[in-house]
Amino acid sequence: MNSLTKELKLERALLRLQAPKIFCRFLDYIDNGYRRQWFHTIIADQCQKLIEGKIKNLMVFMPPQHGKSQIVSRCFPAWALGRNPDLKIVGCSYSAILAQQFSRAIQRIIDSKEYQCIFPNTYLNGTAVRNEAKGYLRNVDLFEIVNRKGFYKCNGVCGSLTGTPVDIAIIDDPVKDALEAYSPVYRDRVWEWYTSVLLTRLHNDSKQLFIMTRWHDDDLAGRILKYEPDNWTVLSIPAIRESLNDGNTFDPRNIGEALWEERHSLENLKEQETRSARMFSALYQQHPTVEGGNIIKETWFKRISRTEFNKKFYGKSIVFFVDTAYTDKTCNDPTGIIGTCRAGGNLYITCATKVNMKFPDLCRFIPKFVMQNGYTYRSSIRIEPKANGLSVIDQLIEYTHLNVVATPSPKESKETRLNAISPYVECGRVYLVEDGWNGMFIDEVCGFPAKPHDEFVDLLCYAIDYHRRQEGTPRDEDLLRDFL
């Protein structure tokens, strides 16, 4: 026996001794070709703390294709059942099919000779190693540990768990794609399932383990952390390190380095970011909102004081845009209003507000608001004829002397329109007149689409599109002077 072979055998023997007690060594032992990275060790160590009772609930946020499911959804249940064959584990994912794939992988690990060598008391009905046990369930959805109380049950998110007590609940990505992530209906559905189904199956000593890529700040993880942040240990590892003060003292990388260069190079990650900064920020950096904004960034907006604006542009006509809301009680969307002025090739947003009012009150409010915010005989109020917009238009035209115009309804989605006008904002041509509404406006526009309301998004798109169309119109002497 040469020295290399002897060394390999000794290493294998050491792995066999350590694997039952140390989860990260179990990963190396159960798959001889596994190439554990430093962040895999961090995840494994946190999972071990969970099983040992040092932490109760764990969330792991990591970019796609970096090995988190292999550790948490395939290997961890097998290792946990080896240490305690009486555990009752439920594994959930966005689809029952994916959850079943994890179940099959766990069963293959438990059936393996390597596993049986270190955990001989944990085996399944029909295993190639032990086939004498009868009467214990084993299928793709549920398998029981022979002669013990433990089992593993897989489930699609929003599926039933009636009658199933749970010691460890594992959720591996409850959201399939962007359509689900940005659907408030689906997010509410997942939240209702979590609170009314999964949580009802837990007991005082139950543990929860979630692994996710963040799509939305109101996703399941976001809602849970909003209500009970102190009850969870959160491990969030970005694909590219952004700061040395990110709280990840375990991270050996310098700023700007990729998490797994050999598999997902910095060059490829940057290409992903170029394709969609918003998606990259969510899926790869675990930030549902890009720092400073999603499609629109806060730093793109310029500011001007009210005094300076009045000094420079006194007498300029103000154009108001109104996004009306339905008035029935099932809808909580407010009506949004902004005032705008174009001068010097730039767009100035002079005022903004939101109100929740029924139709009669809204029709009384709009004239008062515009008159208080610079309406003159050269101004106009432009309202999209949606929701109760057409009725508001008719009412204002009939009972006031205001210049009210119906704006054409857009055919493209909000996201498409916001992307279309984003270069106009990015080049510094949109100014906010400093006032108390600035923060509310910035938060919504820069947070889109991860915010519950988007009236200001619509109004910004209307305003930029309208004023850009007016550029060069011979009848508007003020706008022509801007280009002389």
CATH superfamily of the largest domain: P-loop containing nucleotide triphosphate hydrolases
Broad CATH class of the largest domain: Alpha Beta
The number of helices is 18
Question: Helix proportion of residues, in percent?
Answer: 40-55%
How would the global form be characterised? elongated
| Rg on CA atoms, Å | 29 Å
User: What percentage of the residues does DSSP assign to strands (E)?
Assistant: 15-25%
The domain count comes to 2
The end-to-end distance, rounded to whole angstroms, is 90 Å
Given the helix and strand composition, which structural class is it? alpha/beta
User: What is the CATH architecture annotation of the largest domain?
Assistant: 3-Layer(aba) Sandwich
Instruction: Give, in spatial order, the strands making up the sheet with the most strands.
Output: 3-4-2-5-6-1-7
- The name of the CATH topology of the largest domain is Rossmann fold
For the report, how would you describe the main beta sheet?
A: 7 strands, mixed
Q: What value does the average pLDDT take?
A: 88
What are the segments in which pLDDT stays under 50 over at least 5 consecutive residues?
472-484
Count every beta strand, where a strand is a DSSP E run of 2 or more residues.
14
